[in-house]
């Protein structure tokens, strides 16, 4: 298996708390991006303190309450499953803060999205209605996007977070693009992680991560709840017919701006009538 692909670890870390994924600098080689996926039973509590990183807690499914920075946001979350395809609530937590998350429904899923940060910023509720939504692409290159923390958001220091839905028979993150060179205004350096869910859950999809010189060239069969690491390179996703893809992207780098470069071999796809 590729070192870029991480299967769910499903480790019980406290009563009613399961750590599904844990991507950090020590185990991933990523310098700027971190990610955890937490499953909570009703009444279960997860606690963490931040140092040198900021975090966005996304109420992926079910309802949760989040306490941080002297604030408590109760019963947030809008959907039973990510495949309800509606935006959800999130909480931004700045570096230096401690936080607790409590599961309020029978089963809750919480994505914890991290980036290196120097500036302590206010704890903020990002309501579902605060997400901007958009449709991208045409033909077999269609996807629907929820922007939780876009690059123009003032809420975070360096963190970008976005949700993407891709129907079966379509490609996403396509034509292949990359953002691994600090060459603004043409391209920014952003590491990235992809957390995947698939409907129905027995499905699979394909993701390729490759560089121009092919020193990195990995094509992976991705299953439900896998994570893919993108330290550099192009990173398209292909979804087989009959299945729907959801992924949550976390991006961060030295500058909080998303400027990408398309693979010139495939950029012609954008010029079709």
UniProtKB/TrEMBL annotation:
KW Isomerase (keyword) present: yes
Pathway where this protein functions: Polyol metabolism; myo-inositol degradation into acetyl-CoA; acetyl-CoA from myo-inositol: step 4/7
GO molecular function, one term: glucuronate isomerase activity
EC number, as in UniProt: 5.3.1.30
Annotated GO biological process: inositol catabolic process
SUPFAM superfamilies: RmlC-like cupins
Record key words, sorted: Isomerase
Catalyzed reaction equations: 5-deoxy-D-glucuronate = 5-dehydro-2-deoxy-D-gluconate
Record bears the keyword RNA-binding: no
Highest taxon of the lineage: Bacteria
InterPro entries referenced in this protein's UniProt entry, alphabetically: Deoxy-glucuronate_isom_IolB (IPR024203), IolB_Bacilli (IPR023770), KduI/IolB_isomerase (IPR021120), RmlC-like_jellyroll (IPR014710), RmlC_Cupin_sf (IPR011051)
Purpose: Involved in the isomerization of 5-deoxy-glucuronate (5DG) to 5-dehydro-2-deoxy-D-gluconate (DKG or 2-deoxy-5-keto-D-gluconate).
PANTHER family: 5-DEOXY-GLUCURONATE ISOMERASE (PTHR39193:SF1)
Family to which the UniProt record says this protein belongs: Belongs to the isomerase IolB family.
Protein's name according to its UniProt entry: 5-deoxy-glucuronate isomerase
Organism, as annotated: Listeria aquatica FSL S10-1188
